[in-house]
C-alpha cells in the first residue's frame, strides 16, 4: 500500500502540473522559471532537513553521483524538452517522453545490471500503444519539416537524459543514500546549472511578481518538485526504475482528464480505447511478482 500511495502521489501531482506550467509562460524565460522552481524546492528541503537535523554528510563520490542525478533529472532534460515544445504538439511530446518506460529498462540493464522483466516489458509496450491511441489526433498532424524533426530529436534527447537521471537515482538508492538529502543537493545543483546556462546565453534572470506566476511557482516547487520527486525517487528505490517509469505513461493521461473538466477536452472512442490500454499495461507492470 505504501508503494501504491507513492505511485498515486507521483501520477496525480505531475498530472496536475501541466496546467500550473501554463501560468509560468510569459515574461520569464522557461529556463529561468525552471531554475527558480528547483532552487525554491531545494531551499525548502534543506530547511526541513536542518530543522529536523537530518542533513547527513556525504562523500565527494556520492556528491558527484547526486550532481549527475540533478543535472539529468532536475534540469538537463528540460533544456531539451522546452525548446522541443515550441515546434511539436504537446501530445507528441507526451508520447516521446513515455518511451522512458522502455529506456529505463534498457539503461537499468546496461548500467545497473538489473534484469528486464517480461511482464514489465509487455505492460510498457501495451501502455505505449495506448498513449499513441490517446494522442492520435495530434500525431496525425505531425509535419517532419526541419524544425519539427530537430524538435523531435531534442525531445528524444531530453527523455534519454531524464532516463539517465532515473538510473543515477536508482544507484543512489542502492547506496542507501537518504532520498530527501539527494533531492535537496540534486535540485540545488540542477538550479545552479540552469542559472549558469542562462547567464552564458545572456538570458535575464527575472521574477514575475503577478499572483498567477508566484502561485503556480509555489505549487510547482512544493508539490511538483518536493512532494512528487520525493515520492518518485522513493518509488525507484522500492520497485526499480523500470516499473516506476510507468508513471510517465499515466500522468499525461491524468493531465487530459483535468483538461476535460477545466478546458473542455473532447474524448474520442480511439482515445478511450487507448486509455484502457494504458490502464491494462499499468496493471501488468504493477501487479505483485511481475517477472
Automatic annotation (TrEMBL):
Name by which UniProt lists this protein: EamA/RhaT family transporter
Record keyword Coiled coil present: no
UniProt cross-references to InterPro entries, sorted A to Z: AA-Vitamin_Transporters, EamA_dom, EmrE-like
One Pfam family of this chain: EamA
Membrane topology: Multi-pass membrane protein
Gene Ontology CC entries for this record: membrane
Domain EamA positions: 4-135, 151-286
Similarity comment text for this entry: Belongs to the EamA transporter family.
PANTHER family, alphabetized: EAMA DOMAIN-CONTAINING PROTEIN (PTHR32322:SF2), INNER MEMBRANE TRANSPORTER (PTHR32322)
TM segment ranges: 5-25, 31-51, 63-82, 88-112, 119-139, 151-170, 177-201, 213-232, 244-262, 268-285
Organism: Kineobactrum sediminis
Compartments where located: Membrane
Keyword Transmembrane among UniProt keywords: yes
This protein's UniProt keywords: Membrane, Transmembrane, Transmembrane helix
Domain of life of the organism encoding this protein: Bacteria
